[in-house]
Structures are given as C-alpha cells and as structure tokens.
Amino acid sequence: MIRTNRAPSPSRREFLAAAAAAPLGPAALAALATAAPNPGMTVRTRVGTGPISIASGNGLRACTRAVELLKQGADPADAIVQGVAIIENDPEDQSVGLGGLPNEEGVVQLDASVMYGPTHKAGAVAAIENIKNPAAVALLVLRRTNHVLLVGAGALKFARLHGFQEENLLTEKSRKAWLKWKENLSPRDDWLDDEQRDPTVGKAADPLAAVTPMHTTGTVHCSALTAGGDLASCTSTSGLSWKIPGRVGDSPIIGAGNYCDNAVGAGGCTGRGESCIVNCAAFSIVSKMESGMEPTDACVAVAKRIAAHTLEIRRRAKDGRPDFDVSLYALRKDGAYGGACLFPGGTFAVHDGTAGRTLPCTPLFEKN
Ligand code: ASP
User: Fold this and answer.
1) How far is it, in rounded angstroms, from Cα 303 to Cα 111?
2) CA dihedral 291, 295, 298, 303 (to 10 degrees)
3) Helix axis angle, 281-290 relative to 295-308, nearest 10°?
4) Ligand 1 pocket mutation pick from 56, 217, 234 by most atoms within 8 angstroms of CB
5) 219 in active site
6) pLDDT in tens, 78-96
7) Which domains does the chain have, with CATH numbers?
8) Candidate list 171, 219, 237, 270, residue with the active-site label
9) What are phi and psi of 193, to 5 degrees?
10) Is the pTM of this model over 0.90?
C-alpha cells in the first residue's frame, strides 16, 4: 500500500516556521538533534514484499533495471550494480562514472560501495581512476576478497586483474567545466577565462573580492528488496567536484553513504559526504528503522542530526542552517520506503514492481 502526501501536522509546521524565521545558534542546532520525531511527517509506505528498488533522484533507470532483473531471478547485488552501471555509463550524468566531474587537478577519481544483506558483507573502492564502473569493482571486492575497501592504485590494479579495461573518463563537457572552475578561482592568478583574456574588457581586479569555489555534488544510490525478502544496497559517485586529489567521500564508507541490514532495511545518502561520514548517516537511517521509525521519519531524523551537528560557522548560512544539502534514502524490509533532504528540491526514484516514478524527498527545512 502506498500512502502519500499526508499534510504536515501543526507541530511540524511550527518547527519549519521557527527554523526559517530565527537564526539557529549551536544550542538551537543541538536541540534539533534531540527533538522528538514528528508523527505527522509525510510518509510513503508500501508494506509487502519485493521486488522493489529505490534510488537517488537520478536513478530511475537504475531501479527500473534492478526490478526487471529481480523479476528474472537475479541476485539483488547483481541487479542493483547493473542498474547503477546505466548511470555510470551515461556521459551526461556528471556525478558518477564516465563523465563524472574531476578533482582539482582535472583527474576523475571514483568511489563506490555495495552491501549485501544475506551475508552482511560489503565491498568498496575509493579514489579509483580510469574504470567507469566502480560499483562492479566494489562487488568483486565483496565477493572475491576478505577485505571491504581497496583504494587508489591498489583498487585499479585489482580491477585490471579482474579484466576491467582502463579508459579516459574525462569527457569534453566535464573537462570544460573543470577549466572554467580553474580559470575563475582567482582574478589574480595566471589562468584567464573568456572575459579575462581580453585586456580591454572586464572589471579591475579586486584582490579582496570573495571567489565562490562552485563545488557541486552528485551520486547515484540504489537499493533493492527481493520477493524473498533479501536486501542489497549500492552507492557510486565521482564525489565532490574539484576535490583535493585522494579525497574520499561517504559513498564507499560503509555506514556513511551506504548500509544495509537484511533483518531491517537499507539506507543511503547523497550530498555533502563529509557530513554523512561524521554522522554515520546510512547506518543511522537503518538503526532508526530498527527502533520502529517509518522510513521517511528515519531519514528526516538523520537530516535533523546532520543539521544539528553542523557547528562550523564556515558551513552555515547566515540563518544558522547548513550551507549544503544532503539527501537520505530508506528501504525497509517490509517494502516501505522514503526519502528526506535538508532543503526542498531533492527527489528519489522508486520502482515498486509495477511502475517506476520519481518522488520528492521530505525536506527538513521549508526554504533554501
Ligand atoms: N556524497 C558524495 C560525496 O561526498 C557526493 C554527492 O553525493 O553529491 O562524495
């Protein structure tokens, strides 16, 4: 059964209104972490067995493919990894795989993980270069090693030994986006953008002018539940654009960007990975479902915790709220699912065995 769009209760409205009206200091942010879960939050739920698959907003094709494969009897880990490969192989999706946005040196470094409910095993790769399907490599780490996480050159070597082909993952579109970022880092450096290259146009250089770094985020998460009640989850990403080489986000960190427990459900995150890591976000989603929360409420509670733990002034807007977004996704053992984000606009995809669609994540705060 699917229940959608229950109206926010007064207390939720009050919470959102208060959050929007008043700047939140560290104490107010900390209070958010202990606030009681609101029973009036939007809850989307489907109680029943799989096959069902949910994904981040860019992953409708991934969960649709995963359900197709599950119907043919595929293992859930294979189903989601093959679904995610559609997004990894798409050069137009600049958040993952081929065409992913590169690091600050113009090199594409990918992270991915897979977790398998029936054995409670996980496999992951981080900062791997030249391999467009890091989720498939992560699945091999899970199945063909006694380890969980391989990084950098070791991960690449492992992939090559398993027959993966190296290729240049930097598309022209992503290279141009990187160059634009680099040329706009500072008006005082030696890299000139279109405007700066013509000495007769443009503004006089202001050494005190603030320069926006223009980082972007993006990732694909996908989890699935079989008709027999088994779960698997996967997260794959090119990470934060223009990151420091070697930076690893939450996606390959089990418990941060991806987690599943075959007795409870699966959780995953996209958005600012550092915040998901320090809040053990994916694990927390599953843990909150284990303690009885609805999937959407579990995601909102973790969003609330992330906001409350954003104590660095640099990471907060003038109103005290985070200056970044995070989206959280949950699929419970009984087929119920949900998604939440810090600010309106986030979406998640679901294929419930009958139809695929994209739904809004429930935002913690009312406005950006
Ligand atoms: N969570 C990813 C990371 O921090 C990025 C994203 O999802 O946008 O690497």
Assistant:
1) 22
2) 170
3) 140
4) 217
5) yes
6) 999 999 999 999 999 999 9
7) 22-169+213-363 (3.60.20.30)
8) 219
9) -85, -175
10) no
